[in-house]
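S., here's the first fold you wanted:
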Amino acid sequence: MAPPDETLTLDREENFETTAEREAALNRLRRFAELQDSAFKVPGTNFEMGIEGIIGLIPGVGDFASALVSLYVPFEAIRMGAPYAKVAQMLLNILIDALLGSVPLVGDLFDVAFKANNRNVRILEKHLGRPPEDPA
């Protein structure tokens, strides 16, 4: 059996009947990633953080809970027909975010800076041939 590559996609039922439905799903993912990773600006800086950075401060369960919620992006990517390699890359981003984010103090700073959800949405946008949405 050949190893997965960019041309192979996960077996799934096509859940999007129109391009408009696919675009609406991508817009939901963009809003989700922004809320999770960059919804709030730290006063006096240009630094942004989201709900995930706040939840990650809860000892023991915060990073695990954030990782579970972050699985929404790869789940939707599967529904959109993303190839194995792209979904695996998204899952790796979530794993890195959860593992390194669980390190006390330094991990919390990493978690806020890494922004796995934003990274994962950009991976999907690139796969779909869509330019990333302007953050402005």
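And the second, which I think is the more interesting of the pair:
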Amino acid sequence: MKKIISLMLILSLISLTVSCTQYHAQGAGAGGVVGGIAGALLDRKNPWRGGVVGAALGALAGATLTDVSMRASQEAAATGKPVQYATEDGRGVYRAEPVGYNAQTKCHKVHEIVTESGKVVKDQIKEVCEGEKTEQRY
């Protein structure tokens, strides 16, 4: 039974990574690594089980956070207005504010701020471009 559950978690992790965009895959990968390490450390009786469960949950959380970040920054760039998402309990807040636009590169700059329980967890400037690069050069 344990092998079946582990196999299902591994397959769902692989399908999550394969079916996502590059950004989702990066978020899922980072979340999976952190979750796997944390799960292995927390499950002292069976670190493999804890690692697999932690990796699956971490990958899902990482991909979800990446999706929220991408959508909010694209919405802020498109509308020219600040966008804010918050968890139901209000502890986690994601805010994206448009900063500027470069007509030459067709890219908007968006200021992202993520807070958790009132403390800043992430504060960065992100570029959101109108087109997609399909070749090695522009």
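Why I say that: The chain has a mean pLDDT of 76. Helices lie at 2-18, 22-42, 47-79.

Talk tomorrow,
H.
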